[in-house]
Write a structure and sequence with these properties.
By secondary structure, the protein is mostly helical. It has helices at about 10-30, 40-60, 65-80, 90-105, 110-125, 130-140, 150-165, 165-175, 175-180, 205-210, 225-230.
Amino acid sequence: MRTNLKDKDYFDSYITLNKEDIEFYEEGLKSGATANDRIPAVKRQIFTTGLHTVIAKYSAGYPVQEVETDFIKVIESLKEGWQGEGKNIQFDDYILMLWMLSVAILLDIDDAEFRKIITVLEESGYKDGIYDIIISSKFSDKNTVSDLTYPNEFGFLKNFYATKNIEDLKNYLDKAWYKKMKPTYWFDNNKNKNEVFFGYWSLESAAFVKILDVEDSSLENQQYYPYDLVHWKK
């Protein structure tokens, strides 16, 4: 287990239910049983459920190799499942793309798979400074500088990128990060009576640490920091 907020039985049940839901949604699309006006919502559900399952498997202590295999499948559902367009984007959709980019860095997926994520983002016309930093760390030809969409929530990453001060990052994660996530749909999900909790992880912080190659032993036991995702290939 990588989180102490739920036990393994909880996560195993959650992951099984998610797998069954995805199979049901995919069969409905394949058979034509899904009404046309429901297709976009169903495709979004397939994407988000798949991504939640990836994070849940990490939370539950599954091998990172299995997390990686599932993540590659999620990339295939990103194009029709993510809802970001032009200059306007909801906070939840912003975070979903941030997770995709961050996990891609942490898992060190190959360039071809990474470019699939970037293509979805570019086709949406949406730009963001935090996204730019992550993408340019992987592809130097994508070195652009955009404004931050959510500076209050994610400006700490830009500051960390400039200073490389790991103690400042730890202090932010300890005292502020989770509180800043209150507007999200998953905030306090561990208190929900239904099985909807998949984990609380600042995947973006870990991605920045990996990009900067900063010594992070002080964060090994930080509750929101996915330490072994940064180090699993070292």
